[in-house]
Design goal:
The structure holds two protein chains of two kinds. Chain A is mostly helical. Chain A contains eight helices and no strands. In chain A, 71% of the residues lie in helices and 0% in strands. Chain B is an all-alpha fold. Chain B has two domains: 93 residues, Rna Polymerase Sigma Factor, Chain: A (Orthogonal Bundle), CATH 1.10.1740; 64 residues, Orthogonal Bundle (Arc Repressor Mutant, subunit A), CATH 1.10.10.10. Chain B contains nine helices and no strands. At the A-B interface, helix 2, helix 3 and helix 4 of A face helix 2, helix 3, helix 4, helix 6 and helix 9 of B.
């Protein structure tokens, strides 16, 4: 063992970090919580407008022509994700002791195919859309829950 | 701050953010080195650490205190690192000649070791998973077997045996 002991400090010292990394990273890691905390509402609002806008156009069109509204729906199930993706996700998640709601929430927020669409839309566009459409937040959540 | 106090901060929604900040201050460096020794390069370790703390924040409200806080953090970080390595293997294909860790280490501008140190890292990386984990905790962190036993959920006897075998294998590799 003594043979290996002499390398211990050299081995440790061989891995470097940029100067001031831990101090800077401390702030970045703390920001994660702040972003996630404020991001909860943003994520929800970001999820709604894309399909809601499409549904709103259809609804308006149908309303004009047939004078009856159509309720928007979201068709998403685990079938839209590959088995590999689900297996990897669960393998990395379950060991943490996260409860079902968190897991479900994470799947909804991070792994739905819709997210790929929202990445192309800026917050400003979403806010503009909401302002223009004069939708109330309660309506959005009601539709979202539906 | 005592762990019980920190856990009580985490449990309350009002003080959770403060508790999280204390966790970052207390454990980020330790977790970084753990992750770095698994993934090799600084950039990758940085990414994995970010993902780890996202999971930590998301999971804090569900942390029940059944295990020690560091045990929970360590498992999240380990799983994130393993997940990263698996993704990299799928991306680049696994090679018996050179592991993902060695590839990353060789291309990392923040690696500063001579040939002997490079070979030693490779020897450690070639250990079976459990032996490598035990070896790193003992060799680098000089962790006591009692603490390691709680962290890894393995008996002290089995840990001692794993460490003994790991040391023998590293020595053998170095003597080749």
């Amino acid at each position: 063992m003594e043979e290996l002991d002499k390398y211990r400090s050299r081995l440790k010292d061989s891995l470097k970090v940029p100067e001031g990394y831990f101090t800077q990273n401390q702030n970045a890691l703390k920001d994660i919580a702040l972003q996630e905390k404020s991001g909860t509402l943003v994520v929800r609002l970001k999820k709604v407008p894309v399909w809601l806008s499409a549904a709103a156009v259809i609804t308006l069109g149908l309303f004009v022509y047939f004078n009856k509204p159509v309720k928007p729906t979201v068709d998403f199930s685990l079938n839209d994700l590959s088995t590999d993706t689900i297996a990897n996700y669960l393998a990395s998640e379950l060991a943490y002791g996260l409860d079902d709601p968190l897991l479900s929430d994470a799947l909804k927020v991070n792994d739905t195919p819709e997210d790929a669409w929202f990445e192309d839309i800026s917050n400003e566009e979403i806010i503009d859309f909401l302002t223009d459409s004069k939708l109330e937040e309660s309506t959005l959540y009601q539709d979202y829950e539906d | 701050m005592k762990e019980e106090e920190l856990i009580s901060l985490i449990r309350s929604e009002k003080t959770r953010l403060k508790g999280y900040a204390i966790i970052v201050d207390t454990y980020q460096e330790r977790l970084y080195w753990h992750v770095r020794s698994m993934v090799g390069s600084h950039d990758n370790a940085n990414d994995v650490l970010q993902n780890t703390f996202i999971k930590v924040w998301k999971g804090l409200s569900g942390f029940r205190g059944d295990s020690k806080l560091y045990t929970w953090l360590y498992r999240i970080a380990s799983n994130e690192a393993v997940s990263f390595i698996q993704k990299e293997k799928r991306r680049f294909g696994s090679s018996d000649e050179e592991s993902i860790f060695v590839q990353k280490l060789n291309s990392d501008p923040y690696f500063d070791g001579d040939e002997m140190i490079r070979i030693l890292w490779e020897a450690i990386d070639r250990l079976p998973d459990k032996q490598r984990e035990v070896f790193k905790l003992k060799y680098f962190e000089e962790m006591k077997y009692e603490e390691m036993s709680e962290l890894l959920g393995t008996s002290i006897g089995a840990l001692k045996a794993s460490y003994h075998h790991a040391v023998q294998k590293v020595k053998e590799f170095l003597s080749k």
